[in-house]
Amino acid sequence: MATKQREKIIALLAESDEPMVAGEISTRLDLHVTTARFHLAKLVDEGRVETTTVPTLGVGRPSVGYQLVHQAPTGALLGHLLGQLGSTRAARERAGAEAGRLWAEQHSSPVIAADLPDPVTVASEILGKLGFQVSNIVSAFGSHEVRLCSCPLQDIARTHPEVARGVARGVIEQALAAGSPALSSQYAVSVSPDPSGGDCEIVLRLAPLRRGAGPLAEIPFR
Prior knowledge:
alpha+beta, Muramoyl-pentapeptide Carboxypeptidase, domain 2, 2 domains, 3-stranded antiparallel beta sheet, 8 strands, disordered C terminus
């Protein structure tokens, strides 16, 4: 829901030739002004929106206006670059997995512990370092479900879901292996896209690995 509201704000700002104030945005999108300011602040933090001063009529301090940050048209270039990772989906997924392992390795270090680390703690720590935000964790009967938002793989998943699938798999494989060599052999990992149909949330599931089970991770991104 948050992502959809922010995309509506982005679309509204894109249609405007002039900066818009929070009050106008809230009215146009039927949002409470506090909610509009919250989403605008998040968009500013993400570097997608910038603030400027808007003169007020009559006496008074200038208002804060919001406008899109103009960026070079490199969106298509990203898709072309991802397409060069391999001639098949399987090859691109393998390349993505290797990149994910290297990405996670840069932000994690081996943990030497007498006991087997908690897989959720291990996964959550590396995911947080890489820009994912854990919104909820549910554990039952030895299995764990971790809901994540603000997925940093959104842009990749839109054009090449197989690359995003590989990156996510590599990240989790590396995180578990760094936590303990035994940890990665005891849990099967699956990652699903946003069940509500948006692009923000994904669900990470860790289940005890059964003997003779398939690959460590199968990540069905759209």
